[in-house]
Amino acid sequence: MKITRFVRMQLTIFAIVTVISLIAIAVFYLRVPQMAGIGKYVVTLELPSSGGLYQNANVSYRGVNVGKVSSVVLTDTGVAATLDIESSAKIPTDSQASVRSVSAVGE
């Protein structure tokens, strides 16, 4: 059985659309670049107490969400929190950190 030129073109177009769709799903839905560490930097923050800090909590700088807390680990002197921060957020190295609870209305 011979495949006609028209059918071959349809299969080629279908294959190209499928590959483009899979790439779009991997980048936008599965967020593969973020999981691979592209577009973010990691900061380890040593605190004397956790103050209610938890994994996946939002990290904000001047009221704008710039990342997430990826882990909170107990240490001998308190806790070590690992923060994943977007590379577009330029936070000075001499900044002071504080842990605050957010109310139900987001304040």
Please give a structural write-up.
By secondary structure, the protein is of the alpha+beta class. It folds into 2 domains: 1-30; 38-86, no CATH class. It has 2 helices and 4 strands; from the N terminus they run ααββββ. A 4-stranded antiparallel beta sheet has the order 1-4-3-2, with no helix packed on it. Strand 2 (58-61) and strand 3 (64-74) form a beta hairpin. The longest helix has 25 residues, at 5-29. It is elongated. It starts with a helix and ends in a 21-residue tail after the last strand. Keywords: Membrane, Transmembrane, Transmembrane helix.
Main sheet overview: 4 strands, antiparallel
Largest sheet, spatial ordering of strands: 1-4-3-2
Shape: elongated
Strand content: 25-35%
Structural class: alpha+beta
Helical content stands at 25-40%
What secondary-structure arrangement, pairings included, does this model have?
Elements: H1 5-29, H2 32-35, E1 40-47, E2 58-61, E3 64-74, E4 79-86
Antiparallel strand pairs: 1-4, 2-3, 3-4
Pfam families: MlaD
InterPro entries: Mce/MlaD (IPR003399), MlaD_Phospholipid_Transporter (IPR052336)
Organism: Gordonia effusa NBRC 100432
Task: Offer a quick outline of the entry.
It is built from two helices and four strands.
